[in-house]
Amino acid sequence: MIPITIISGFLGAGKTTYLQYILNQRNTNERILIIENDFGETSLDAQQLSTSGAVVREVTSGCICCSLQGNFKDALVDILSTQDIDQIYIEPSGVSKLSEIISTCMDKEICEKAYIDMIITIVDAMQAPMAIKNFGPFFKDQIKHCHAILLSHIEDTKQTAKTKELITELVPNTPVYTDIESLQQDVNQIHQIAHAHNYHDCNCHGHTHDCNHHQHEHEHQPFISHTFYNLQTLEEQRWMELCNILPSTIIRAKGIVPTSAGPMELQYTPQNCSMSATNLDSFHLVIIGTEIDIASISRNVCNPL
C-alpha cells in the first residue's frame, strides 16, 4: 500500500515551501510522486518542485475538489496503476475543500492500492483572520480535516497568538506548530492521530462529505485567475509597488518576473509581498481573486502589443 500525504492550506500559506523542506530531508532512494494542483493555467509550484528530483504530475486550471475532481481521481488511479513509487504527496489548490480531496482519495479504486497517511494544513498567521472572515467555508474546512497545523509568517507574535486562539476554537485537539523542525520531530505522534481518524477505512467514503453543498459554496466565492505573459522588465521596487496597490479583490499573485537584476520569483498575498532571485526564466504572472481588472493590470505589467 502506498502512503498519501496531503499538504493543504489557503492561498499563499506556504504549502510548497513545506513540501520542498520535506523533499530535501528525504531518503534519496525513495521514489516520490507529487500531484500539484494550481488554480491558474500555469503552475509555478510545479516548476519549483520538479527541481527536487521528484516526479510531478500537474492538474491545473481549476480545483481538484470540484471542477477537476474527475481529473484528479483519474490521475490518481493512473499513477497507482502505472507508476512504481513509494510515496505520494498531494498539494491541492489553496481554494480547495480538503474534505472533498479526502473523499476522492478514499474512493474504492484508490483504496485498493493507497491510503491517506497524513494530512498537514499550513496556515499563514497574518492572513488567518481575513481568510476566516471572507472565505470561511474553505479555510475552516482545511482546518477541521487535518491531523496537524503548521503556522507560517509568525514574525508578529501577537497576531500569531490570535491565530492560535482562532484555530483552537475550531479544533481544540489538533496540534499546532510554529516551526517545521518541531512538526517533523512529532511525525510519529501525528501518525497516531491520523490512524485514529480511520482514513484507512474506505467504507466511510461519502458519509460526511456533501459535494452539492461544496459546489454551492464555490458559487458564493467565485474565485477566478488570469495569467499574464509578455511582461515588462521592471525594477524590483516597481514590481513591489504594483503588488501593493492591487485592489482588495486580489488575494494572490505569484510568478517569475523580469527585472533589471535578472529573473525573480514574486509572491504576493494582501499581508505579505516578497521577491527572490531564481534560475527559472519562464516569465509569467498569475493573479487570483474574486474580481480581476485584466486591462488595468496588463497596462502596468505587460509590454504594449
TrEMBL record:
One of its GO terms (cellular component) is cytoplasm. The lineage of its organism: Bacteria, Bacillati, Bacillota, Negativicutes, Veillonellales. InterPro entries: CobW/HypB/UreG_nucleotide-bd, P-loop_NTPase, Zinc-reg_GTPase_activator. This is GTP-binding protein. Residues 3-174 form the CobW/HypB/UreG nucleotide-binding domain. It holds the Pfam family cobW. It comes from the Bacteria. It comes from Veillonella tobetsuensis. SUPFAM superfamilies: P-loop containing nucleoside triphosphate hydrolases (SSF52540). CDD domains: CobW-like (cd03112).
